[in-house]
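Project standup — Tuesday

K.O.: blocked on the structure for the chain from last sprint. Re-posting the sequence here as requested.
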Amino acid sequence: MTNHEQFAPCPASAEQFCRFWAAHVDDLERHLSANTWALAAVTFVLMAYPIARIVIPAALHLAVPGAVRTVLTLI
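H.V.: unblocked you, prediction finished:
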């Protein structure tokens, strides 16, 4: 069996394929050190912070004027 065949999904065994990958992920998670988890957490925070600082205010800026207009028309 080649490396590609090992990971090719078979339509008849989709559940078995999902269990195979779940076992792989569980094995990886069990073998990661605390330093690796800390590095992953810091990386996530460094990526999420600027996104939150840009996306959330932009979404509020788009949503609030419409809502304010609606409330003012009701008054």
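K.O.: great, moving the ticket to review. DSSP finds three helices and no strands in the chain. Residues 33-75 form one domain.
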